[in-house]
Each structure stands twice: as C-alpha cells, then as structure tokens.
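User: My instructor asked us to take a sequence, write out its structure as tokens, and then describe one feature of it. I'm not sure where to start. Here is the sequence I was given:
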Amino acid sequence: MEENISAPETQKSKLDSSRLFQQIFLCCSITGTLLLGFALGITLHFSISTFQTQLDDMLKTTALSLADSAMVREAYHQGYCTDEMIHYFDTLVDTADNMDVLTLSDCNLIRLYHVNHALIGEEFVGGDQGDALAGKSYFSDAIGTLGLQHRFLTPVRGTDGSILGFITVSATMTCINSLKKNIFSTYFWIALVLFLALGIISGIISLMVRRMLLGFTPQGLANTYLTQSEMLDSLDEGVVFVDPKGKVQLVNQAAENILGQKRSKLEGAPLDAILRTREETTLLILHDWSHFIALQPEEIDSERGVIMEELRTRDNASWRSTMKMLQALGKGTKYEHRNLIGYLDGLKGFQHKELEDFYNTWYRPDYQAVVIVGDIDVDAVENKLKTLMSDIPAPAADAAQKEVITVPDNEEPIVSIYTDPEMQGSRVQVFVKRPAVPEQYNNLVYGEMLDVVQAYMTTMENARLQEISMQPDAPFLGAGMNSGSIGVIPTLEATTFVAMTQDGKLTQGFEALYTEMEKVRRHGFTQGEFERAQNDLMRRAERSYTNRNDRRNAEFVQTYLDNFQQNRPMPDAKTEWQLDSMLIKALNVEAVNAFAQQAIYPNNQVIVITAPEKEGVENPTTEEILAIRDKVAAAEIEAYEDNTVKEPLIPEGTTLEGSPVKKTAQNAEYGTTEWTLANGVKVIVKPTAYKADEVRMSALAKGGLSILSDEEFYMGEMMPAFNSMSGVGKFSATDLKKQLSGKSASVQPSVENYASAMNGVCSPKDLETMFQLLYLNFTQPRFDENDYNTLMKMLRAQLENVKSNPDYLMEDKFIDVAYGNNPRRQMVSTEIIDKFSFEALPAIYKKLYPDANSFVFKFVGNVDLETLKPLVEKYIGSIPTSKKPMTFADDKCDPVKGEVTEDFTASMQQPKVSVRYMFSGEMPYTLKNKAALSFLTQALNSRYLVSIREEKGGTYGVQVSGSTEYIPSETYNMTISFDTNEEMADELREIVMKEIEEIAANGPKSEDIEKNREFMLKSWKNSLEQNASWMNYLNSKYGSGLDYLADYEEVLKTLTDADVQAMAKKVLSDGNLVKVIMRPAKEEAK
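Assistant: Let's start with the prediction itself. The structure tokens for your sequence are:
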C-alpha cells in the first residue's frame, strides 16, 4: 500500500476555482497512477524473480555439494544411511529455507534417505530420475510423496565415474506456485487499494487548495487535515503514505491493524522493512494462497511455454516407464488412464476458467492447515493468523468432496512389460497390493506397531537381498524390498520387491526374486536375523532420542504435516523413545513372520517389467513371467540358513605398537587441539556439542589419482567402490554389516583427482569401532576376485545402454571437447573397464593410501580429548609411516584454451536441444575470488530467470555454477547449461552471452547482489553449528590454507558490485570458452 505524492505546479491565477480543482485532481491522479504502477511493477517483478532464483540456487547448491561429499558416497557404497547420516541430512533440510524434501536414491530407485524416515527404503516417487541416472544435473517438477515438487536432481558418482544413484532436493510446487502467484495477487490487491486511496487523496488535496484560495485560516487547514485522517481511518483497507525515500509518513487505523504495529513505530520506518518481515509476509502469502489467488489470464498464458518445455525435458524413458507402472497399479481406476502431469495438448488448450473453477472448488479452508514452527511468540502469531484468515469464507454445506478412489482387487497377477530405446537398464518389480491402513488407526499404538513390524521386515529382507547380489553369478545386480504406502495412490499400500538385472536376464532375476518372496512367506526370518535387526532399530531409536535437542524445525513441521494428512501421532521426544523402544523390544520374530505371511500372498500381485528396446536382447513375455511364477509357487524352497558368528574386528591377542603424542598445540580461534605423534602423524581435534551422538573423522592427503599412470587411473577411480563391495580385513561386505549390527560406526576410503581420503562417522560410544575400521582400511584392505567380478558385471550392465541416452551423449561429448580428448578425463565406458586387471588392484591401493604421515587426521564432534587420545596413539599410531609423504603430481588435465564450439546431433525419443558453455582460466585461489565467482553465478541465474524463462518462455530453467581449484594450479571454471526446443536454441544462446556482457559493461543489479549476500551470510552462520561444516573449514585451513573463520564473513560483507563486474570482465577477457550444443537428429526435430 504505497503512494508517491508530487505537488502540482502553481496554476495561473486566471483559472477559476472549479477549473483549478479539476486540474489538480487530474494531475495528482495521473502522476500518482503512473508512479504507483511503475513502482508496483518493478517491485513485483523483483520479488518473484528473486524468490525463484534464491530457491533454485539453494536447491542446486545443496544437491551438488551433497553429491560430491564422501559421506554421501559412503551411504551408497554401503547401501544404507547410518543414523549419523540420517541426522545430518535432517539437520541440513531444516537449515535451508524452503527446502521441503531431500532424498538419496540408488539406481534401483530405493531411497537411502528421505526427510520422512518412514519412507526410507521405499521406492523413489516422481519418475523424473532418468536423466540423473544418465549423469545429468537438472531441475524438474514431479509428483513425490508430498505432492508435486520443484526439485534439483543430480547423480552421485563413484570415484570410477559410474552412477551410484541420485540426489533430489525439493520444494513442494504447491507452496512455490502459491508463493509466486500470491505475491502477484498481493500486489494486485494492494494496487486496487492504493488506486482507491489515490483518488480519495487527490480529491482531498485539490479541495484543500481550493479552500486555501477562498481564504481558509490555519485552523481551517487543520480541520481539513483532521477530516482527511478521519476519512482514512474510516476505510477498511489499509493505507500507507511514504516519502520518496520509502519511509512511512502516515498510516491509517486499518494499516495499523494489518501490520500489527502502532502508528508511532510505523511512521518514519522504511516501508520495505515493514512489509518484508518474514513472519508477516509468510502469513499474508498463506492468506492469499488459501482463497485470493488472482489467476490473471495473461500470467497463466505466459507460463505455458515454460511448462511445455519442462514437460519436454521430463519426458524420458524413466518417466514413461513410471507412468506405465502407475497405470498397472491403478488398473480399473482413473489412474490407469491418466498421466500425472498431463500432456502437451492439454497444456496448450486448457481454458482459463477451468483453472479458476478447479481453484475455487478445491482451495478452501476445510482442506487446509497452517503449520508454523520457529522462534516465535505463539499467542501473538496465532492471533494474527486468526485475524488475517477471518475473511476467508467457509465452504458451502453442499461443497464438492474429494473422490476416494479405491483400487480393485485382482485374483490373477497384472503383468506390465514396457520397453524403450532409451531405457538404461532392465528391472522387475513385484507389488503385493493391500488397502491402506484406515487413518483412525494411525494415531494409535497399533499404527506405530505396524511401522515397527515393517521396519523389522524390510531391514532383514534387504540384508538377504544384498547378500544374494554379492554372490558369484548372482541372478541380479541389486535388489531391494519395501513395505508401506505407494504415495501417489493414497488408498493403496503394497509390499514391493525390485531387482535390477543384466539385459536379457530378466527371467533369471524374476525367478530369484519371486523365490525369495516365497521363502519369506513360507519360512519367515531366523532368530539371528531378528536380533541383528533389533540391534539396528534400537540404535536408531536411541540416536534419535539422544539428539532430541538438536532437532530442526523441518522435523517438527513434517511431524505436524503427517498428523494433518495421515492422522499420525505427535508425541514428544521422550514419549516417542519410550514407545518405540518398548515396541522394538516387545515384538518377537514370530510376530514379524506372521505379518510377512499376510503381506506376501498370491492375490493382488502386480508384476512390472521395464527393459531397453534393442537388437539382440530378448525380453520375457507375459506368459513366460506367469509360468515362472507358477513354477516357483509349486517348488520346494529351503529356509534361509544364518551362520553368522560374532567376532572382533581385530583378532584378540593382536599387538599394536602404537605411537605416543609427542607435541600438543592449541588454536583458540578454532577451538582445536593439535597432536603430533612420535611417528610424525598430525591429528586435529575439534570438540563440539552440536550433535550429542556424532563424531566425524577425516583423513586427507594430497596426491590422489594424479600419481597414477594412465593405465591405472580409472582402476584407481573405481577403488572406493570396490572397497565398499569387498569389506575389510577378514570380513566381506555382507559379513561386516552383520558384525556391526547395533553399532553406529563406519569408515570409507575415497579418492579424487588430486587427493586421497578416509572418512568416518560414529557415535561417541562406538568410537573405538571406528578406529578399528580406520586401522584395517589402511593395513588390511580386502581384495576378493568374486567381489571384483560382481562389480564388473554391475558396471557393464550400467554402461551397455548409456549410449542410447542423449543426456549421456551430451555429457560424454562435453568432457571430450572441454578437455581436448584427454585420456584422464573421459566418461567411464565398457572399453575402459575391459582393460581393468584384478591383480593390479592391491598395488594401486597402496599408492593411493601409502602411509599415515601423508594424511592429516581430523576429528569433529562430541568427543572427549582424554577418551580420544589413547585411541589415537594406539590405532593411528600403529599405521605404518614413510620417510617421504605422498604429494600430488601435475598430470596436465587443464581445459582447452581459446574458444571451441561443437555442434552435433543425436537420436532421441523426445526432441530437444541441450546447450552447455564452460568458461575457464587462471585465478588466484582466494576467498574473495571464490565469493565473487559465486556472486556472479547467482546474478546470472537471476537474469536468465527473467530474460530466458519468463520473457521468452524458452526453457524451464538455466543452470549456472562455478568452481575454483588450487591444485595442480590456481584456476576457475563457470558452466552454463539449459535445454530448449530447436526453434529457440540459437536465440537463447545469444541472450546467454548478452547477459554476461551486460554485467561486464554496467555491473550487476545491486538488488541481486544484496539478496545473495543475505542468503550466503545466513548460510555461513548456520554452518557454524554443523560438524560437517567445521570439518570442511579444517580441511581448507590445513589443505589450501584458506582461513574461513578469520576472513569469510568479512569477504561476504564487503564484496561490491564492482568486484562482481570485474569477475564478469575476467571471464570474458580470458577468452577460454567451450560451447557444446546437442540437437535432435533432423527427422526428430520439431
């Protein structure tokens, strides 16, 4: 509610008072209208673009940083997230504004992590993961467990370059779209109010002048002012007057009530600061979203091109196969005939009124809830909410009700077989449907008991399936099992088994999978399996309770949402711990086996098969699948034998020589203690209290793949994946997992181009177990040829189909062009892995992890120095050392110089053009330069959002990212990528360059810089309460030498527009630009 008042010029004395009154009125009204319209338009545009840019930046930055972290790779290598990882991810979700969902999913689409812990182990929902599994990072909108989401997907690669899975970081589309459109709606209504106020005020001004000319006294003028105030106070709409500097000069009573502050506090304050308080803005958005979205026709139409490009980008083999799966599960209902997001024809042709009618029918109070969690005055916020929402009408008694769609039973199995030329692997899924548990049971002990029973069953069965997949000549590459909700179909639950197989071996994989299903149904689980699962579940519950004071807002929000949506309970931490621990201990293996018999039965089965469509590969028919099922059902199946015997990781009687601490130093600024052992090994310890049940470990050394020969390079890159599959010491990966049941400790080697690392995490109570694993990884790595052959089989299965995926072809071409066909910078291929040698692995491992004194060991977390010190001396002190520590080599892998363009075509099912640019060059490795590059990428993201997405409607989004390196030399690169259609590709490419040139010539928009500064400062402050962040800052201090604690905040605060402009100039003037454009083959282009 804003008005800029400009006084009219002095009128000629010959004009009579009536003429003067009219001209003054018109002058004020027209001038005010123009200024007001311009100001509102600029503010609206900035608000929407800034919101989307910051959201996309947050989603993308979070996903990319996670995908590159050793902890995430560790989760994929071991096939599950430890309790420490789960808590870290929970914290991450809560510390990022507007991030609703984080998922880690493997190549079988099984979630290793979900913010809703009940969904861990279930299948990923959305169907937009195909490009991520093909190696691409991108934004997508898809329906997940929390509804339609805007998310950033990125692959997680093993150090060999193979795809381990993918990460999604999401915000719900309902919330995003509501925020965007309600920002517009808010400004629309504000404009109406202001225009009304403008007319009133113009009349008052002209009346005052006319009265002055008629000889009004000062008292008369005062009376006129009082009349004006009375008129304004009589309005129901809030009116605020501001001066040219944006400071409030006058408010009426309604504005006081709406803004929740006294007039004395409002007058003189900046209007922007008043309106943009997060609490007030959020409540206003919720209010408008609930009932007052404008749905302007021109705004709806402007989004059509964007959404059609989104649909074009999303339409890949994975998405198409997911639609087939949902249609099979929903057979006999609307789900059988519908696509989750619609079709291009529908997007092109829907009428505005259809959208308006849908909104008016379903967006109403009885289907809505408001959840607010944070450092707030509960009573005050509740009162504001009640006042603000009071004008939303209740639905009519005969208002439409949501349709409850019940999926019918099926006596005979439903079989769905879908093949696609772009499919990246063969997969079989078996669903055993059942009706969802009635909501009234969810809030009872019965509902919690069902969750615990299903957790037992999935934990034990997934351990079995992992064990099978690790056997020589395993019938499938990987498999998983889950029990619970389907997600998209709320009335349906299912027990789900899934297996990935080699192409052409789906029949063997299905027979093995169905045999395992029957084995569980007939024989159940053993007491030993149950006890290991019980240890793991108890440890998870205990960890959750121990960290109860570290829970973030998002965890509370999810609890309340689950209560609203599913009638889930909302206990306090102590009650939840008492109930869960009681149920975990009270249940026995017989109860779990009884549930398994009910959850796995012959009726209501849906069998879904997806496979590549290519020559030389025969996929099974429906008749063959049913015949295999009948064969297994009629066969004798032996029960599972559990021969596990608990043993110490390091045999009793083993002598460890150790090495004492020789020197101790303190760093008061970082709060660290530095120990130097007698053998020269350096250890840094940072005790914290951020998480009561977490200690993190990092051992980092310069060297990595750079010290290997070209022949060894890709075997070295694959090494951590092999280590994860082979176990350590005398224990295979499967046996090690059994030995560690009930413990929370893990260590995983990792390697990068110029660094080798060992990373670990544990509970303080399992600290010695982590040290034992660390010692074994250095001294007794395990090499088993059967495990090696299993990994090779998995890699080949992944790589056999990648060249049918256009996104892989784009990535492959880009790396080749950007690095001049360098043999050490290639996408892993079957040709590369065919040259691998099992016999070479031990020597390569020894090169990558040669000795203790090449590494700096760091510990961050809830650790006591007196407890830690003897463990350091015993275990790290016993790792061999050498006279000459490892260091990196310059292996000459810089990007190409000059400008290089590669324009090529590829065959694809859904035609699109993919564009990627990379700028590179030399640059001093400083915090200021790193920040300037980051600010530049965010400024470009903001500009492209407007110029390419909103104004041209040519793409769903442009992604800009930058990175800096200090090894082997100090360099930077900045990449820009997007997908679009053939007609607009070259025009958008020109805009990409023009926006960089505009910043280089005239500087960035100050508002873009300030918004990014605010976001980065907040992220920085939040990071200082996270163990993982402290580990990163210590790695920087003892690696590159950058001192984040001393310098980073000041760099963020003092970085100027000129610094960002200078960075843009440098990027252009360095002249190193790689352009790669992939277009559809001519017969496919549309």
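For the description part of your assignment, you could build on this observation: Residues 1-17, 212-222 have pLDDT under 50 and may be disordered. Try explaining in your own words what that tells you about the chain.
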